[in-house]
Amino acid sequence: MAKANLLPPFLLKQILLYRSTSRAAIFRFTYCFEMKQKLVFWAEEAVAEGTQKCLLAMELKAEDNRIELHKFEGDAATEAIEKELKEKWTKGLVVAFPTTGYQKTEQELSAASRLLPEAYQCLDESLNLDSLKTEWLFAVLSTKLYKTYWSELGEIQDRVERATKYDKMLWEELKAFQAKVHAQDKEKNLFKEHVQELRDSLNELFGLMKNLRKIQDEAFEQAAKANYDQLDQGLSAIEKELEGETGKWDKYFEQLKGLQAQMKKMKLSKKQRNGLWTRIDKAFKLVKVKRFGKQNGDSRLERRIQGLEEAIKKMQRSIDRDQKELDIQDGKINAPHATQIETQLREVKAKMLRERISSKAEKLADMNKTMKELQKRLAKMQKQAAELQKETEAQTETPPAVEETPKREEASENNSEEDQA
Predict the structure, then answer these.
(1) CA–CA separation, 44 vs 123, rounded Å?
(2) Which of 92, 107, 140 is the C-terminal boundary of a domain?
(3) What pLDDT digit, counting tens, does each position of 297-308 carry?
(4) Residue 5 CB coordination number (10 Å)
(5) What is the pLDDT of residues 101-132, one digit of tens each?
(6) What is the DSSP letter of 63?
(7) What confidence score (pLDDT) does residue 31 get?
(8) Which of 22-26, 65-69, 239-243, 353-357 is predicted least confidently?
(9) Closest listed residue to residue 180, CA positions, set 148, 217, 136
């Protein structure tokens, strides 16, 4: 989708042109939106006999890009009809036009043509028809922009109404469109009533999407509760058996691995998943301690590795954020409507980001190098522990001839290991 702060190019070019033609008029229109779309005034009309005074009523039809000119002449041009037109017609009320002495003409509004045909001369010196034309041209462009947005919103609405389930991409598309409308409202490029119509329709579509999300959330919560209850039941049984010191540590280890694998495939809320994960992790550590005993060296090294893993992830996320910001700045540098100083500022910011990314990348490389060294040390320690455990289990499986002998041999072997260490 187009960037939220940009008009379609064909409209932007024209709007900038009309803004430059009459700064005062555009200020009144852009910031106050008090533009008149109906105007009543006296004028002189050039006729064959010379000139005649007539009453003119002009109306802008912004959606059709045309002007309706109502002329009242002769007996039809009275102060009474002037008063009625100003007090009622200009405010949208119906006024009965006379059948004689009245003529209606239409013309297209364009920058090249006059607002008032050449045959007429405005007698109201307080009216600046050139400024009014600029305002009306701006109004036509604003209406075109509104119709463009309305058409785009209609396409989104069609997809929302056809949706049978919540769609995050469709939700994000609505948010992007909302941001675009907000940007145009902030720039005062849309009439307030047009902005309100777009917002009302957007709110309805957001409401439909929220209902779909609510249905999806309810279904998810039901499935998550059933999954949690199933996993909780299995885990509680293992935890209870672990308290009983049954000695079937391998069996519990495999059961916990099975629960872990099962949990990864199941729908669970974040709170449920974190709670189960904490309990499973605690059970794993308990099984490990009961299988192999406490290995303080391994534990310290594992904690150091875990801490380093978190630091690496944090550093990588930081680099990713900087890279994303750099990509945005690089894109803005080449923006067609950016000023020179904006481009220079973005180039400096991009350079700062590149230097920051480079520095962080060096630190990340050092951290990864340290991680490999620690993992290598841990693997070596675990291998030594596994070999020791295997020897111990093999000796346990062999019934001793004399009960006290293996104890002394075991002590001797342990002392030997300590000496080597």
Answers:
(1) 7
(2) 140
(3) 567 888 888 999
(4) 14
(5) 999 999 998 888 888 998 999 999 888 888 88
(6) G
(7) 34
(8) 22-26
(9) 148
Query: Does any domain span residue 198?
Result: no
Instruction: State the amino acid at position 269 in one-letter form.
Output: S
Looking at the domain assignment, is residue 285 inside a domain?
no
Of 384, 406, 386, the C-alpha closest to 397 is: 406
Phi-psi category of 188—alpha, beta or left, where left has phi over 0 and alpha has psi -120 to 50?
left
Query: Environment class of residue 182 by beta-carbon count within 10 Å: exposed (0-12), middle (13-18) or buried (19+)?
Result: middle
Predicted TM-score of the model (pTM):
0.50
Average pLDDT over residues 357-382: 90
Strands in 66-72's sheet, in edge-to-edge order, are 102-108, 66-72, 50-61, 38-47, 120-122
- What's the angle, vertex CA 157, arms to CA 155 and CA 163, rounded to 5? 110
Q: Which amino acid, one-letter code, is at 308? A: L
Helix 270-292 with 340-397: angle, nearest 10 deg: 40
Q: Pick from 123, 140, 157: which residue ends a domain?
A: 140
Q: pLDDT tens for residues 24-57?
A: 333 333 333 456 889 999 999 998 888 999 999 9
Full residue range of the structural domain in which residue 126 is found: 9-140
Residue 281: its pLDDT value, please?
A: 87
Q: How many domains does the chain have?
A: 2
Give me 416's structure tokens: 């030997």
Burial class (CB in 10 A: 0-12, 13-18, 19+), 387: exposed
Cβ–Cβ < 8 Å for 185, 153: no
Q: Is residue 420 part of a domain?
A: yes
